[in-house]
């Protein structure tokens, strides 16, 4: 792998974000959020109120020394630390995000202090091209011996919720989603800047970004924002599907859609905290497939249904048929 | 038109601390030393003096600059309580002076655990990042929960039964992760909970002490113990003495780019443990960067690895 030269910025980032509903019956208030996300004594939980309430834990570091997946199945060893943190949005949606900046290393492992002086960086021992490592990360099957950011984020989500004294009575059922992502510097990939989001299955999405410059903080924030909105979209879709809207003429769907109205519908705010250089990526996703278009259509459908129920129109019409 | 918006609570902030070039530890007082009387103290200072002079002369400072060097002295009031500040502090100052040494700062070891609502030991614990033996891929939880930290892979516990069955054939030796040809494996006890609460080990507190001297600890972005001026009257209880006292009003700053400790040989295992611990301690990035930047501006060489900033001399007497 070509070394990061001073002033050139990182060549490659690997990351994963897990997103899920906080297992608690009500929105978590500020003080409890501080306690839940205060994962490191002596460090602040970073919080902001505009344009929505978001709190982020201090960064944690985890040491790794393991093979990195490549598409060519060539053995590449990575040594260093992975950064991770937890994010809570509007006291409701909990995310765990892990990130490793991949850099060139020597031909052997160096003293551990060297890696601690470069937190969040995993150095490649041996040869490994950025594009090849990115592809390997996205293609990685379930955790084996390779870098396991999925396992790390899963454990973080579970630990954060366990320590916080939550009542574990979530207002509705939902699934955790995973966004596995990579960001490669465009000049190394030999491509124009852009992104490719793939819905792999019900819960797994992969995102491959090619960027002019790869800022770890900005890219991770973008991926967390994308994961949050993808989860909202999937979760609202599943709630509508389960509610029986469109098939059950009675008041059932209204009852079943209430959690969506109470807990989800105000959370849509794509791109709110995305750095300017990355804003075009969101714009791209808004054009195709059109995240907001789908969200607006779903929300409108729920609202129309509620309105019809309120004036008592739906049931008689159906019965009249 | 371009507008910007910022929320202060969303930004991390970190205070910088005044820095010397070198923090020179000239002694460490335990109850036994104190019980042996002032002669013992004088003997120790006399023994330390030539090495302190050597350390001053060896302090790396750009040509033409005055080296900023502060001295410090640590009192063990954590594991045993003895005498009072009113009695001990003037004695230390006088005996040091008699040997041609000045004690700039005096610290209490118990403050490395907790004092004035600050818990430096917890700050250090929060940033321990274990050095991963090969094969660590992020899926296992960290093992610091046990209160033990090693510099490698322990002999696996499940192998013991096998070893019995196979007449010792299944036993695997421990291995130091960064060993050369052979291992020097060390497993350090960080704390125990025998007396209800957590009692930190001596090497652990010594590591905290090194980090305080290196200016690397922050509590929510703030300096942990800003040095307090010497009280007009020294108190009769250690708890009433500030955690870190500036005895010499003209002293250079307490924290420094590098530390040097002149210690008796019996401290060697403890300081080996300190090394194992600090090699697995991740500093706050902004603090680390600020230090590196200031060192660069001053033209002072500063090693990346923290343990490279720590120097020792072990002398052969008690």
Automatic annotation (TrEMBL), chain A:
Which InterPro entries does the annotation name?
SCO2521-like
> What's the protein called, per UniProt?
SCO2521 family protein
The source organism is: Kitasatospora terrestris
UniProtKB/TrEMBL annotation, chain B:
Question: Where are the residues of the annotated region Disordered?
Answer: 129-176
Tell me which domain of life the UniProt entry assigns to the organism this sequence originates from.
Bacteria
Q: What is the recorded name of this protein?
A: SCO2522 family protein
